[in-house]
Design brief:
It is built from 14 helices and eight strands. The strands form two sheets. The chain has a six-stranded mixed beta sheet. It is α/β, with parallel strands linked by helices. The longest helix has 34 residues. The protein is globular, with a radius of gyration of 25 Å.
């Protein structure tokens, strides 16, 4: 098959084809339409290498539709191929490096998400952007209010606009924060709409309900985990999943020197943050029936809150993967007796499974009721 490398720029796509370690064709295309003359359905089949990113998801679908094999390159390892070597990095050079590495068989391939998981990632991305924007506006309003010697009571971000409307503020402060509060109210509506879409996605994916049987794991965490991992079978062990998410300690070993540092923080940052939030949730609500929580509290007593939260987030990732791999709900007694590798569906009591799924469904219903109530409150104002 032909060996082709593509580099996606902000406005151009650089095309390079190699054969027998020599460049036989180069081109610069303004978009997919122009690329069709080199990789259209009527051209010879090709293996196409391109760096992994969200922008490539659509292109990969188009290329596969044209009959080509798409290979995504792990962006964290592209320097191993020679990209950026000797201080030279252009779209033209990068495309050639990718094509040459592909022909030579030394490509560090990345995973291409399935269309269903891509949809989850898009919806999560929209919600995340809305939530982070609202958080920045809330911080701004609180700063303005405090700088004038006044206060707004504590509350969740979803109720902040209502809280400000009812607070005892001077006319001057109210006039200052008014435009921003209006934006927060609009964001509240959009966030609830985004939540409703994610709830529908969760209902359509049985795996989400299964993962939500674990304490501390709510809808957003479960959907994020599914959308990032995509296929549990592409990992051989819980440790691989933990390393993929950047939750394992960094290490430097050379000769007799061995240094262990902080976690690597590689992989999807958003999922890592969500798992840390879930870990803090478990630590805030001690439950003697949850062995993971009990274990994390023991770590906290020895090493402190932050280290305990990171350690628990790592364990959560491993156990969630094992639950997915074996199609099992979370069973505290079994987790207490075995590691994530020991969770087996065959050994799981059907009654335990049914009860856990009921609890998971109740979690989802509570989220539905909360979203509906908040939408009604906004509509009544």
């Amino acid at each position: 098959m032909r060996s082709v490398g593509l580099d996606l720029g902000s406005k151009r796509i650089s095309f390079c084809e190699v054969a027998n370690a020599r460049v036989i064709k180069r081109a610069t295309c303004s978009g997919i339409a122009e690329l069709q003359q080199f990789l259209g359905a009527e051209t010879a089949p090709a293996r196409v290498a391109v760096e992994a990113c969200r922008e490539v998801w659509h292109l990969a679908g188009v290329l596969r539709g044209w009959g080509h094999e798409v290979i995504l390159i792990d962006t964290t390892r592209v320097r191993q191929l020679g990209i950026g070597a000797h201080g030279r990095k252009t779209d033209r050079i990068d495309a050639e490096v990718l094509a040459s590495a592909l022909e030579a068989g030394r490509v560090p391939a990345a995973h291409l998400l399935s269309p269903e998981r891509q949809t989850m990632r898009y919806e999560l991305g929209v919600r995340r952007a809305l939530v982070e924007t609202r958080a920045s506006y809330v911080t701004m309003v609180r700063h303005i209010v405090r700088s004038h010697g006044q206060t707004v009571g504590t509350c969740t971000s979803g109720y902040f606009a209502v809280k400000v409307r009812g607070a005892k503020l001077s006319d001057e402060v109210r006039a200052l924060v008014g435009p921003v509060v209006e934006l927060i109210e609009q964001l509240d509506i959009r966030i609830r709409q985004a939540d409703a879409k994610l709830i529908e996605l969760g209902k359509a994916e049985p795996l989400v309900a299964l993962l939500m049987t674990m304490p501390g794991v709510a809808l957003i965490v479960a959907i994020a985990f599914v959308s990032v991992i995509d296929d549990a079978k592409r990992f051989q062990s819980a440790h691989q999943v933990e390393a993929y998410l950047g939750l394992v300690p960094s290490e430097y070993s050379s000769g007799t020197v061995r240094r262990i540092g902080a976690i690597t923080k590689q992989g999807n940052r958003y999922l890592r943050e969500l798992l840390l939030e879930a870990a803090h949730s478990v630590l805030r609500r001690p439950n003697s029936e949850n062995p993971l929580g009990h274990w994390a509290q023991a770590v906290r007593a020895r090493r402190g809150l932050n280290i305990a939260a990171v350690a628990l987030a790592r364990r959560l990732a491993g156990v969630l993967w094992a639950m997915w791999r074996d199609d099992t709900v979370y069973e505290p007694a079994r987790v207490g007796l075995a590691s994530a590798r020991g969770l087996r569906r065959a050994a799981q009591n059907l009654d335990v499974r049914a009860k856990a799924l009921v609890v998971s469904a109740e979690k989802l219903q509570r989220r539905v009721r909360r979203t509906t109530r908040l939408v009604s409150e906004v509509a009544m104002k």
